[in-house]
Design goal:
By secondary structure, the protein is mainly alpha-helical. The protein has 27 helices and no strands. It has helices at 23-31, 39-46, 51-61, 72-82, 88-97, 104-113, 118-132, 134-142, 148-160, 162-172, 178-190, 196-210, 223-226, 240-248, 252-260, 269-281, 285-294, 302-312, 318-328, 336-346, 352-362, 368-373, 380-392, 399-404, 412-422, 433-443, 449-465. The chain is elongated, with a radius of gyration of 29 Å.
């Protein structure tokens, strides 16, 4: 496998440049986190048809240890969608690397390509052998082409795993397998070592062959349902220098995305200077808005505080003022004017959700009644902010309502996070947190891996808000490791 080439020379590739950028360079940028894998990127690739597969296969076949993002699932999905034999080299290589339990998209990619996939799959099975090649045999069995080599392979598998081999013959539905299965069934029922499971599998396979039905080829993977219309680059994997390039780039969308990546984070001096400039003078109001909000960690700087207060109390566009309000919200108790503006924004339906976000960011319990009032609000954004507020202000009285929201897919993650922040506890100690995690998991009817991470993050956040070290979040050692 050849070594990968380096990333593209230009750090920033804007969406309007996708169609003029090679597929290889787009993939290289995505693998470095510099391009978000969204519908715009996929459309640019897919619109090139089979021509795109030369670069996709070239990229996917390379040894790429320096990549920050693994694009294998994305390349398989694109290959499945295009359904061209040109993708077989890459798909076979992916299957060779991980032959056990291949993804549905990978299986369907072979089947969508059709009969051209049979030869490489047969060669791969021979290379892997019956132990590791079971799932390769499954893909071959799913082909309904009466290729005698497939039936020969399945018959050979009888020696390794007769039950699985009979099952696969039932999937393949080749009438030529009927006498083989009849003999398998007979031996399993009345042989020296009867095996009811094998006999039953052979009987079901014979029934499937008798009533085979017409196989339907897999539909193209629904890329437009799986991938968002727009998604930002993966800033968390970038170096600071790369993020600064995005702050300076010509695309307002990407400048805003980059500025957003500094919200709720410590802002390095190099970024602070650029963010202040964007907050003051960027020609795009959306960029100015998020740049203002990203300055929250710098409010102790007199220049920054003055800038934010001037913006908040000005007649500038509402999004800018909201950004300044959110940046200043954690200082509500020490800057009385901020509280007045929160109430002002709350009274305006157009800015009510942002006002409620500022309320929970302020951690001011004077706002507790607002969160209780809006926990069932019809407006999704307002309701979401109320849920967060109930958590951050540790409104234990609202915990039962949050449990009810575990059953609502729209709000389940928000409710899990908020409940972990406010679940009643006799005492909050680090040693009790794992017990709280188990309690939440039981009340939620189990947690997915992602949900478990959300709850762990919330519990750690709760500990840190009370001045204790986190339990689940790894702490950096003295060397920053």
């Amino acid at each position: 496998m050849q070594a990968a080439e380096g990333p593209p020379t230009d750090v920033v590739i804007t969406p309007d440049q996708y169609n003029s950028t090679s597929v290889y360079d787009l993939l290289a940028a995505a693998a470095q986190g510099m391009v978000g894998v969204d519908q715009r990127l996929l459309k640019s690739i897919i619109d090139r048809g089979e021509a795109a597969l030369d670069d996709i296969v070239r990229f996917g076949m390379e040894n790429r240890p320096a990549d920050r993002i693994n694009l294998e699932e994305d390349l398989v999905a694109i290959s499945q969608y295009l359904g061209s034999p040109k993708a077989l080299k890459l798909l076979t290589e992916y299957l060779r690397r991980e032959p056990l339990d291949p993804s549905e998209d990978l299986i369907h990619a072979f089947l969508r390509i059709g009969d051209a996939g049979i030869d490489p799959l047969l060669k791969l099975y021979e290379e892997l052998g019956p132990e590791e090649g079971g799932d390769v045999a499954f893909i071959l069995a799913a082909y309904r082409k009466r290729d005698p080599r497939i039936l020969e392979l399945l018959e050979q598998r009888l020696e390794h795993d007769p039950q699985d081999a009979a099952f696969l013959m039932g999937i393949h539905c080749d009438p030529a397998a009927k006498p083989i299965l009849e003999l398998v069934k007979q031996n399993a029922e009345s042989g020296a070592d009867p095996d009811p499971a094998v006999a039953n599998e052979a009987a079901e396979a014979l029934e499937a062959i008798a009533t085979p039905g017409e196989p339907e080829p897999p539909e193209p993977v629904s890329l437009w349902d799986l991938y968002p219309e727009h998604i930002e680059p993966v800033f968390e994997v970038m170096s600071l220098e790369e993020r600064l390039e995005f702050l300076r780039c010509k695309s307002a969308e990407l400048r805003a995305d980059a500025a957003t990546s500094f919200i709720d984070r410590d802002v390095p001096d190099e970024a602070a200077e650029i963010l202040i400039g964007l907050a003051k003078d960027d020609p795009n109001v959306g960029v100015r808005a998020v740049a203002n909000e990203a300055l929250s960690s710098l409010v102790d700087d007199k220049q920054v505080r003055k800038l934010l207060m001037n913006t908040l109390e000005s007649s500038r566009p509402i999004p800018e003022r909201c950004g300044a309000l959110l940046a200043l919200a954690p200082r509500t108790k020490e800057i009385p004017a901020v509280k007045r503006h929160i109430e002002e924004f709350y009274s305006n339906p157009a800015t009510q959700a942002r006002a409620m976000e500022a309320m929970w960011r302020s951690m001011d319990r004077d706002f507790a009644g607002h969160f209780r009032r809006h926990l069932n609000d019809a407006d999704v954004d307002i309701r979401r902010q109320a849920i967060k507020g109930a958590g951050y202000l540790e409104l234990e009285s609202e915990a039962p309502k949050l449990v009810e929201l575990f059953r609502d897919e729209e709000f389940r993650l928000d409710a899990l996070f908020a409940y972990a922040l406010c679940v009643p506890a006799k005492r909050l100690q680090r040693g009790d947190v794992t017990g709280l995690l188990r309690k939440i998991e039981e009340m939620a009817g189990g947690l997915t891996e992602a949900e478990g991470e959300v709850v762990e993050t919330a519990l750690d956040t709760r500990l840190m808000l009370h001045g204790m070290e986190p339990v689940f979040l790894p702490l950096e050692d003295e060397d920053g490791a």
